[in-house]
Amino acid sequence: MQGFQKVSCPVGFSWANLKAELRAIWDSNVKVWKIELAYPLSFLRQCVQPLVMLLPFLLYGLVLVGGRYSEALQGLLGTLNPVDVVTYIFTGYMVMGFIGTAIWGMGFSIRREQWFGTLESIYVTPTSRLSLVLGMALHSTMHQSISVTIEFLVIYAVFGLALNVQGILPALTIFALMMFALYGFGVLISALALFLKEGWIVAEGLYSILMILSPVAYPLAVLPNVARQASGVFPTGAALIGMRSFLMEGYPPQGVGTIFLHLLALDAAWILFGILVFYLVDRYIRRRGSLGKY
To answer: Which residues lie below 8 Å from residue 114, measured CB to CB, with a gap of 6+?
Structure first.
């Protein structure tokens, strides 16, 4: 037809197609940054809000313990010395922020496009639907990293942190493995949001369950045995235990190889399961013609 230009798109798995998808992921990330930075006060609030929410955890911990170090926590963890409550809570709360990244940031990437009225336009492009979700994952991880940096600087300046500097690199490796599994979890939430429309109900429930089963502000030893076993299905429990064993002085040594294998297995399981559910829901929604239903 006159006035239209035929554009050839890469088909199948190829280097050209991979570069196109990576570009789509990056552009999706840039798009969200432009929207957020257009409202600087809102962006500043989002960066500072995690610190404001962290402070009550720290203050409650200090008041209940009666100081920086807890002998009760030492008994539960089996450490050689009393545990620094501030460092323990900070490392847990840091991971809690990235749990929210996976569930709320990634899980609602498609729902956000529906709010903006751009979901149908994106769906008719040759780009993979997952690129939209992964672009939001990249943005949310970068955004949360800024918030964690602010938290670290303020908490370190006000309270001080007893961190083992030599353990930062292996702790970051464990953290990366945890994030891959959480990305698969986020893809699953995005599929549920696409199917249920008001997916926040599922997201809120799963977020609460994940928070209970993760040793953010308390060790898993305080949970019933069934809950401790269930926590192994999610990456946050093993990751926090492994990270703390490297970052906190006197923390009981863990089987590092076992933790790495555990997280690698969870990476494969959650990523494959999340992608499978996403594509099944995607086909179901398009077949029913209910994509545009709000």
So the answer is: 294
Query: Is the Cβ–Cβ distance between 91 and 111 less than 8 Å?
Result: no
Q: Is the pTM of this model over 0.90?
A: no
Residue type, position 97, single letter: G
**Calpha distance 98→155 (Å, rounded):** 18
1 within some domain: no
| 54: three-class secondary structure by DSSP | helix
Record the tokens describing residue 185, joined without a space: 């979890």
Average pLDDT, the chain: 80
Nearest one of 28, 68, 59, 75 to 161, comparing CA atoms: 68
Burial readout 230-265 (b: 16 or more C-beta within 10 A, e: otherwise): ebeebbbbbbbbbbbbbbbeebeebeeeebbebbee
User: Is residue 2 in a domain?
Assistant: no
Contact criterion met (CB below 8 Å) for 148 and 233: no
Beta carbons within 8 Å of 225's beta carbon, 6+ residues apart: none
Are 238 and 259 within 8 A, CB to CB? Answer: yes
Range of the domain at 145: 15-288
Provide the number of structural domains found in the chain. Answer: 1
Per-residue pLDDT reduced to its tens digit, 52-83: 888 888 887 788 777 778 777 777 777 777 77
The answer to whether residue 5 is domain-embedded is no
Inside any domain, residue 294: no
